[in-house]
Specification:
The complex is a heterodimer of chains A (246) and B (429).
Chain A (H helix, E strand, L loop, with lengths): L3 E6 L5 H6 L4 H10 L1 E5 L12 E5 L7 H11 L2 E5 L1 H5 L11 H9 L22 E3 L6 H13 L10 H7 L24 H4 L16 H10 L4 H18 L1
Parallel strand pairs in A: 1-2, 1-3, 3-4, 4-5
Chain B lengths: L2 E6 L9 E8 L2 E9 L6 H4 L8 H6 L6 H16 L5 H32 L4 H7 L1 H22 L8 E2 L2 E2 L5 H26 L11 E6 L10 E4 L11 H4 L19 E2 L2 H8 L5 H9 L12 H26 L13 E9 L2 E9 L5 E7 L1 H20 L4 H14 L11 E5 L2
Parallel strand pairs in B: 2-12, 6-8
Antiparallel strand pairs in B: 1-2, 1-12, 2-3, 4-5, 6-7, 9-10, 10-11
Helix pairs in contact in B: 3-4, 4-6, 4-11, 5-6, 6-7, 7-11, 9-11, 10-11, 12-13
C-alpha cells in the first residue's frame, strides 16, 4: 500500500501549500504514483483521518490549535514542519513583543473581546517534530527531496552551514560590500541564496545554523553602520521565538 | 415535518477556513450563518515600529496566494506617504508582475478549486484519472505564471525584486522575450478553458447588490484608479474608510463591511460589471462566448468573470513585453526620500479590492497601519446571498444544499488566510 500523505495548516499565509502545488505535470504524476495524498484542504474536498506522513504548515497562535496539533502528532508516523512559521515560529512571532491584550486592542479596539490569541510559537514548542522543510516560502524542490528521502527511509540531508556558502557559489557580490545588512552569515543554507540573487539581502527565514556566531554577526552589522537597536530589529523578523527560548 | 440541518465544517478548496451552519424546520429557517474561524494574525500590530523597508516584506506574508497584491498595495501606500515618483519602466514592470499573480491565482481558482465541482469530482488529484489533459494544462499555466514572476521579481510567492520606488534588479529582456513566446502559445489554452467552461452548468441565482472596484479612465484597473461603486460616485483612495465601514460580528473572527446597501461585492464580477468596456477585444469576445453580459447579478458567475479576466491579462502582458522590448530596459535605482506622513495603497487582488493604509514618522518608522482585505468585504455579501438562496433550495437533499452552498462560497474565491480562515456548512442534528 502506498504511504498516505496529509497536509495541515495552522496560522500562516498558506504560501507553503500553494508552492507545494507548483509542480510540473511529470512531478505531480510521479508523486501520486508513489504516495496517496489524503488530506490537502486547500486543494481537495475529501479528507481522511488515516495518514502516515503529515506536513504541517503555520505556527500555533491559539489555545484551540494545541489539541488539534497533538491529535495530528498521535496519528502521524512522521511529522514534518513545513515553512518558517511551523519550523521557527516565523513572522507571526513579531506580535510576541507586546502583550496579547495590547495586540488585539490595536487591531480590533472595542471588539477585541471576541478574539483569542496566545504568543506565537513553532510546532516544536508543542509536540516533537521529526523533520523540517525550512524557508519562507520553502523551495518546492527541497520539499520533493524530503518526500523522496522519507519514502526511501533515508535521513533527509539538511545543510547546517550558513547561506554565505551558497551565496559565494552563486557568484554574488557580498551584500555588506553594497552597504546593506544581511543575516546570511548566521542563517541555515539550502535556499541557494535566492534573496541575494534577486538583489536583496538575507532575512534569516530558514532559522539560525546550529552554532551561529550571533555576536560576531552583530559586530559586523555594527561595523557597517547599523545601531544595536536596528540590528535587533532585523533579527526580530524571524528569530523572535528562538531568541526568547534561550 | 421535514428538518434540514447542514453543517459544513471547513469548506474545502478555499484558501482559508470557514463554516456554514443551516438549521431549518418545515421550510422555516431557524439559523443560517456564514462563520469565519481563523486565528487572528494581528498584522497591524506586527507592523508597528518597523522601518518602511521591512513593511512590504512583512505585509506580503498576510497571504501567500496573493502575496504580490499585498506587496504592491504595501509599496504603493508607502510611495503615497513619501510622495515617491515612479518611472514608466517601473509602472510597466509592476503591472507585468501583477499579471503573473492574477494569472496564477485565477488558474488555481478556476481549474483547481472550482472546476472539480462542475466535473463531479472532489479534487484536481482525481481529475488526473478522468481529465488528464486539463490537469497538464493547469499545471503548465501555473508554472508559466510562476516563471514570469521569477523573471521580474525573483519568485512569485513573496516576491523579492519589487521595492518602494521600483525594482532592485532589472529583469533580463531576453528572458522576457522568451516568456512572451510561451504566453502567446498559452492563448490556445485559454480558448480551451473558455470551451470547457461553456460545458459547465452554472447555477442560476440572481441577487443584485452593490459592486465595488477600482476604476481608472485609462484602462481596466488592477493597480491604479479611484474606488468606483455601482451605487455612488467614485471615491479617492484616501476616503476608503467611508466605503468599507467595517464592523464585527460575534460569530466570525473576520470583520464585515457594508456601504450603500446591506452588503457589497468585490472581485472579478464587480470589476467586470463596472469596467467591462475597458476589456481588450479578445476578452470581450470571451465574455460573449461565455454568455457573460454586464451587469450580471449571479455570484456563481464570479468564476466565469475570472476566465474572462485571464484572457485580458494574458493579452495585456504580451503587449507590455512588446513595449518594454521596443523601449529597452535601463538599470534604474529606486529613489526614496523618507518623510512623515500617511499614505493609502489600493489594488485589485485576484479576489477583490485591497487597501493598505500606513502612517510613518519622519524617520520612516511605521506608527499606524490598517489593512482591509477583499474577502472581509465579501463576507457580508456571502451571508446575504446564502439567506436569499436557502429558501429556494430547502426542499432538496442535504447533499445538494451543501454542494450549492459550497459552490457559492467557493465562487467568491475567498482567501481567508488573509488574517482569517473560512468554511463549514453545518446541518445541525
Amino acid at each position: 500500500m502506498k504511504p498516505r500523505v496529509a497536509f495541515f495548516d495552522f496560522s500562516g499565509c498558506e504560501g507553503c501549500q500553494l508552492d507545494a502545488l507548483n509542480l510540473t505535470p511529470e512531478e505531480l504524476f510521479d508523486l501520486i504514483a508513489v504516495v496517496d495524498i489524503v488530506n490537502f484542504r486547500e486543494a481537495m474536498t475529501e479528507c481522511s483521518e488515516d495518514y502516515d506522513i503529515a506536513f504541517v504548515e503555520g505556527s500555533i497562535t491559539r489555545e484551540s490549535e494545541i489539541p488539534r496539533l497533538q491529535k495530528i502528532r498521535r496519528q502521524a508516523k512522521v511529522l514534518v514542519a513545513l515553512g518558517a512559521c511551523a519550523c521557527i515560529g516565523g513572522i507571526n512571532c513579531l506580535k510576541n513583543h507586546m502583550s496579547m491584550e495590547e495586540a488585539l486592542k490595536i487591531v480590533y479596539s472595542k471588539d477585541a473581546k471576541y478574539y483569542d490569541t496566545i504568543p506565537a510559537r513553532p510546532l516544536s514548542a508543542v509536540i516533537p517534530v521529526d523533520y523540517y522543510v525550512r524557508g519562507c516560502p520553502p523551495i518546492t524542490s527541497e520539499l520533493l527531496k524530503m518526500v523522496k528521502a522519507l519514502l526511501l527511509g533515508k535521513k533527509p540531508d539538511i545543510p547546517n552551514y550558513p547561506v554565505c556558502v551558497e551565496c559565494k557559489m552563486a557568484g554574488n557580490v557580498c551584500v555588506f560590500e553594497r552597504a546593506m545588512f544581511c543575516l546570511g552569515p548566521v542563517t541555515r543554507a539550502g535556499c541557494s541564496a535566492i534573496c541575494v540573487n534577486s538583489g536583496r539581502h538575507c532575512w534569516g527565514c530558514r532559522g539560525l545554523v546550529d552554532e551561529p556566531n550571533v555576536n560576531s554577526e552583530k559586530e559586523i552589522l555594527k561595523k557597517h553602520g547599523l545601531t544595536v537597536e536596528q540590528t535587533l530589529e532585523k533579527f526580530k523578523i524571524y528569530d523572535t521565538y528562538t531568541e526568547a527560548a534561550k | 415535518m421535514k428538518q434540514v440541518n447542514v453543517d459544513v465544517h471547513y469548506v474545502t478548496r478555499l484558501e482559508g477556513h470557514g463554516n456554514i451552519v443551516l438549521n431549518a424546520r418545515d421550510g422555516k429557517i431557524d439559523e443560517l450563518k456564514w462563520e469565519v474561524i481563523e486565528s487572528p494574525r494581528l498584522f497591524e500590530a506586527m507592523l508597528l515600529g518597523r522601518y518602511y523597508e521591512d513593511v512590504p516584506y512583512i505585509a506580503s506574508r498576510i497571504c501567500g496566494i496573493c502575496s504580490i497584491a499585498h506587496t504592491t498595495a504595501s509599496i504603493q501606500a508607502i510611495e503615497a506617504a513619501f510622495d515617491v515618483k515612479l518611472s514608466e519602466q517601473t509602472l510597466l514592470l509592476r503591472k507585468l508582475l501583477y499579471y503573473a499573480e492574477l494569472l496564477e491565482s485565477h488558474v488555481l481558482h478556476t481549474l483547481f478549486l472550482a472546476a472539480p465541482d462542475f466535473l463531479g469530482v472532489e479534487s484536481i488529484f482525481q481529475l488526473v484519472e478522468t481529465h488528464k489533459d486539463i490537469v497538464v494544462m493547469a499545471l503548465n499555466l501555473k508554472k508559466l505564471a510562476y516563471n514570469l514572476a521569477e523573471i521580474i521579481a525573483g519568485r512569485k510567492t513573496h516576491p523579492l525584486g519589487c521595492v518602494v520606488g521600483g525594482f532592485v534588479k532589472t529583469p533580463d529582456l531576453n528572458e522576457l522575450k522568451a516568456i512572451k513566446k510561451r504566453l502567446e502559445a498559452a492563448r490556445h489554452d485559454f480558448e480551451t478553458i473558455v470551451k470547457l467552461f461553456n460545458t459547465f452548468s452554472i447555477p442560476d441565482f440572481i441577487r443584485e447588490t452593490e459592486y465595488i472596484a477600482l476604476k481608472d479612465p485609462r484602462e481596466y484597473a488592477f493597480i491604479s484608479g479611484d474606488i468606483a461603486s455601482s451605487d455612488a460616485a467614485p471615491t479617492p483612495l484616501e476616503g476608503y474608510l467611508g466605503v468599507t465601514n467595517e464592523f464585527c460580528v460575534p460569530w466570525s473572527t473576520a470583520k464585515y463591511a457594508r456601504n450603500k446597501r446591506d452588503s457589497y461585492m468585490v472581485g472579478s464580477l464587480a470589476r467586470f460589471n463596472l469596467n467591462h468596456d475597458q476589456l481588450l477585444p479578445q476578452a470581450k469576445k470571451a465574455a460573449v462566448d461565455l454568455g457573460l453580459k454586464a451587469p450580471n447579478y449571479n455570484p456563481y458567475m464570479i468564476t466565469v468573470a475570472q476566465v474572462v479576466e485571464t484572457v485580458h491579462v494574458l493579452e495585456d502582458a504580451i503587449s507590455i513585453i512588446d513595449r518594454l522590448a521596443s523601449r529597452g530596459l535601463k538599470n534604474e535605482i529606486p529613489e526614496v526620500m523618507v518623510r512623515a506622513g500617511r499614505g493609502v495603497g489600493a489594488v485589485e487582488a485576484p479576489r477583490g479590492i485591497l487597501f493598505h493604509d500606513y502612517t510613518f514618522d519622519d524617520k520612516g518608522i511605521l506608527t499606524k497601519a490598517n489593512c482591509i482585505i477583499p474577502t472581509n468585504q465579501n463576507h457580508n455579501n456571502i451571508q446575504k446571498d446564502l439567506e436569499a438562496l436557502a429558501p429556494s433550495i430547502l426542499n432538496r437533499s442535504e447533499d445538494e444544499i451543501r454542494l450549492k452552498f459550497e459552490m457559492l462560497v467557493r465562487a467568491y474565491d475567498p482567501c481567508i488566510s488573509c488574517s482569517t480562515h473560512v468554511l463549514k456548512v453545518s446541518f445541525k442534528k
